[in-house]
Amino acid sequence: MLGSVGLLLVGLARGWLDQGTIGRLVSEPSWAAFGTYVVVVLGMQLLWCPRMWGLLAAGAIFGPWLGIVVSLVPDTLSACLCYALARGGGHRWAAARLERHARAKAVLRLLADRRGGTTVFLLRVLPIHYTAVSYAAGLAGVGWPAFIGGTLLGALPGTLLYNLMGGAARHSSLPLLVASGLAVVVVSVIGALGARRLWRSDRVVAARDPGQPSDGGAEGN
Hints:
mainly alpha; 11 helices; 0% strand
């Protein structure tokens, strides 16, 4: 993530990204652009691609403020699809996917131990893979209201910052791009520190009940 921010800053500073270049790549926003964006980003997130690229694209295509609203559509749809899949017929498949990643298994244990919306909110804010959290919430049995509320609120900080960056790149605003990039770095550092505290609490949970399955008793994990 930080490397991607650095590439954007270098590209704008060296003239690789300017208003003319981006203008040729991005047409005037339309319903066709909106529909294409939603389908492409939804597919990317279901394939575990980094969420930040869709957010940056929304800011560049639609402008930062409309981009915030537009980008929440595929964000919410992908989260709900993964969550529903993990809770339903795709339970075993989702559990097998998370089993391959140590960090995802830690997220699953946290959600199985604390199923509230506050935990979902924190996991959305922290630098943890968006799709993995959705699958883990479904496997852990987090309720729909807690999942949707935590997802919408937790997704807002990253949505705001990355859309501002995308909008700044479109209009060749180096000061705004630098400011939003620095804000991303600060939020990432704070998030990393918060993630360390969560992983420590996860180790406490695992040590307290080492025989408990990592999905809170769910089959297939």
